[in-house]
Each structure stands twice: as structure tokens, then as C-alpha cells.
Amino acid sequence: MTFMICFVASVDGVVVEKEKARVTFENEVRNDVDPGLVEMIQGNTFCTRVYPIQHGGTRTVRVIYQDQVKVENNNFFFNIPIYFTTTLNSLNISLFCAQASNHDQPEVLLNAKLKQPFVHSNGKYCSEFHQVNVQQLGGERSITYMLNNLALEQPIYSVEIDPDDHSEAYFALSYMPPLPQSNEVKLDSQKTMSVCILWDASFSRTNVENPNHEINMLKIILDAWKLNAINVILALVIFQNVVEGPNTFQLHEQLCWPKLSQFLTDLSYDGATNLFQLATISTIIPNATHYFLFSDCLLTIGNDGPTQFNQLATKLIWILNANFTHEPTNVSLIKHLINLSSGGYITREKIVTENNANEIVQYIDRPQPRYISTDIINNASVHDIYSSHSIMLATDAERFILVGKMSLPTSVNIAINFMILNENAS
Fold first, then answer.
1. Is 220 left (phi over 0), alpha (psi -120 to 50) or beta?
2. pLDDT of 161-176, one tens digit each?
3. Which of 109, 188, 230, 384 suits a disulfide with 225, CB 3.0-4.6 Å?
4. Are 210 and 351 within one domain?
5. Residue 36 gets which letter from DSSP?
């Protein structure tokens, strides 16, 4: 469940940790988006990467901050962190809440010093806080407020007029698609699967404990498919700075797993990693229905762009990585590959926990829901829609958020297209 806060100023933004900003920035660049980035250098001095700006012109950047919302008994609880390390001469906060369809007024909870009631004004609920000489407190201050009696499936939307151009407005829509539950998906014993195993044998994976956990998880997955009489053809590709294989195995053969397990156990881990050479695997193994990529996705050779993976990502890519959280991992590339392919990422925590095995098998066999596109029904002028491309939806009850810009005064009717259980839904 997510919510959004827009910070409006000459530059709209939100303060985040430097490392989180870097990961988000790289992820947006991989999606062919040119984001702006503002970094505090010292005092009130900022460094920014916002372009292009014409000579003598200006540019406004709008950044959306998303956070998890706590839900209890159809009430939504929003927590807004307020963190500062020095005494503030003044603290001014304005909260604007789009009017919900149930017309219930938001309620500010906790933090009595910052507790001001919401009042209804211009179609929105507003609450303002003004304090002077605000002393530093240990830890983090926060404001918590609640929206009452909101059904999970109820769409929430808001429209805000552009302060620089009153002929246009920003809009945001929050909606929970009807995602399937895991028990709604059954294994199809009649289907044939062609799984290409891409195994990273580079030097960064020399901690043999991690690959051994991955081998055990691979056995659990294959045993589940074999138990359900699913016909599986396996192709094993080993890669470092060069590619070796493929080696082919038939799951129904009696010696399939002993041969495959021994092959993986005897591997030596050395050399650099060139993931970009996997971009042409689809021409070598054209009938693959799934890719299992066992890797930390670190790149030591090759500097091609992520578009090189477009052909590979036409099939599901499942990435299994038993690295500890403190060990290096290319998180931004992992997110790019699974989002592009509608696959998934299985971390060490899930791999080493034996009681997660059935959940992981169901996760892999369940068709992943996706946002496909947005259709404008009434020929209204709408642009700058985000997400601008098809993305995979999380199945853990998170709301889908769509934002964009529209011309006034025409109202906008839109249809959002999803792919759920391999069927189109709007």
C-alpha cells in the first residue's frame, strides 16, 4: 500500500539517503527516463543535475515520495517523518489530503505539539502547523494521520493545478487491481517447460556456501515439478568472462539430478563477469520458456546499455542469489531484468529457509500480473504519464499508482490495462 506526498517549491523534492538516491537514479536511467537529482553539499549549498534548461529559462522538477501505509480495519495510517539535527528558527508544514469519496475527514494522531485539525477548503482537507524555535530531539519526529473507512479496492485520486501554468494540472490515481491469491493458481501437469539455467561461475561467487544453498533450492523446485509430472527440459549455461554450454538434461530421466548436481558442485569460481554476453542466449536456446539466473549480477566486463537485454527479457527471468546482504550485489540491474521480463528475485533469506520452499515454487509458477498501458477515453490532452512503460505488479497487496499531467478545464476518463493470470483486465 503506498501513498504520495508532493513537495512543491521552485524545485520539488524529498530528502533521502545518498545510497538510496543513487539506486533510484540508476533505475530510472535504465528505464530511459532522465531524472533530476539534487544533493546537499554544505550548509544551504546544493548540487543539482537537472537539464536541459534553456538560456534564461527555468525548469520545475516534481518528485513523488512513496512510503508504506499501515492498514487496520479499513483505516489508512500515514506517517510523515520530520528529521532535523539543528534548532530551527521556524517550522512550517502544510498537509493537503484529496477528498475521499466517503467524505470522512482525516484525523491527526500522535505528536500533540503538531496536532492541528484538518479543515475542508477548495475540495481538499488542509492542516497547517507553524512553530518557532523548534529544538532538536533525539531520533526522528513524525506526524501520523488517519483516513477512516476506506475499502482496499476503492480508487483514490487527486488533481492539483500547476502553480506555474493554471491551464494544466497534475493528477495521481491510487488503485488496487484484483490480484490473484496464491491458492488460486494450480500447477499445470500437462504443460512442457524449457528452462535455461544461467550459472555465474565468476570470482565474486567464490564463497561456495552460497552456490550450495542455490543448488539445494534448484533441487526443491525441480522435485516439485517432477512430482506434478511436468515435462521439463533443462539447458545449463555456465558463464564468466566467456560462455560455456549449453548442456542439456531431461528432468524425467533417472540420473538427471545426480549429473546436474555433480556438474554444479565441481565448478571452479574464477574470472570476470560479462553478463552482456547472455543477451544472445535466446538465439542459442530459442525455445526457453524460463531463465533461471544464479548470479549477483555484478558487472566487471562490458559497458553496453540495458537495452541489450531486451531480447533475453521476452521470457521470464528468475534471479536466485544466496549472497549475504552485506556482500556486493547489483540491485539496480536485478530490478531492471525482473521488471522487464515479469520474473522475480529470490534472495538468500528465502533460499536458506526450508519452510519457504513451497511458497517459492508457487511464486515461480504463478503468472506475474503486469500494468500494460493507459488509454485516454475522451480524447483529453494527457501527457507525462508515469509509469510510461509496462511494469510488473507486486502481489503483496500494494496499490498501483499512476501519475500524469492534464490540460484544463476538460475532465479526463482513463482506462488502465493490466495482465492478470495471463488475461487482459481494465
1. alpha
2. 887 888 888 888 877 7
3. 230
4. yes
5. -
Give the DSSP per-residue string, 148-182: -S--TT--EEEEEE-TT-TTEEEEEEEE---PPPG
Element at 92 (helix H, strand E): strand 88-98
Query: What CATH code is carried by the domain that includes residue 264?
Result: 3.40.50.410
Cα distance between residue 13 and residue 257, in whole Å? 53
Same domain (yes/no): 118, 208 = no
Coil, strand or helix: which one is 397?
coil
pLDDT tens string 44-56: 455 555 555 677 7
Cα separations in angstroms, 12 against 5, 8, 170, 184, 289: 10, 5, 13, 43, 43
Alpha-carbon separation of residue 207 from 123, 197, 199, 211, 294 (angstroms)? 59, 20, 14, 8, 14
Residue 153 confidence class, pLDDT cut points 50, 70, 90: low
Q: Are 337 and 293 in contact (CB under 8 A)?
A: yes
Give the range of the structural domain holding residue 250, as residue numbers without chain letter. 193-365
Strands 290-294 and 316-320: parallel
Residue 250, number of CB atoms within 10 A of its CB = 12
Q: How are strands ordered across the β-sheet holding 382-386? A: 156-161, 168-175, 400-407, 382-386
Tell whether 145 is covered by a domain: yes
| pTM of this structure | 0.55
Q: What is the pLDDT of residue 199?
A: 92
Burial of 95 (0-12, 13-18, 19+ CB in 10 A): buried
For residue 329, which of 267, 281, 273, 278 has the smallest C-alpha distance? 273
When pLDDT is averaged across residues 121-128 and rounded to a whole number, the result is 78
Q: Cite the DSSP H helix spans in 228-355.
A: 256-265, 281-284, 331-341, 348-352
Helical segments of 167-244, H only:
209-227
Last residue of a domain, one of 65, 89, 124: 65
pLDDT digits (tens, 9 = 90+) for 168-203: 888 888 777 776 655 444 555 546 788 999 999 888
Pair (230, 335) in one structural domain:
yes
Read off the C-alpha cell for 176.
Answer: 488496487
Q: Residue 42, Cβ neighbours under 10 Å: how many?
A: 7
Cross-sheet strand order for the sheet of 107-109: 70-72, 75-82, 141-147, 107-109
Q: Report the domain count for the chain.
A: 4
User: Cell numbers 483516513 label which residue?
Assistant: 147
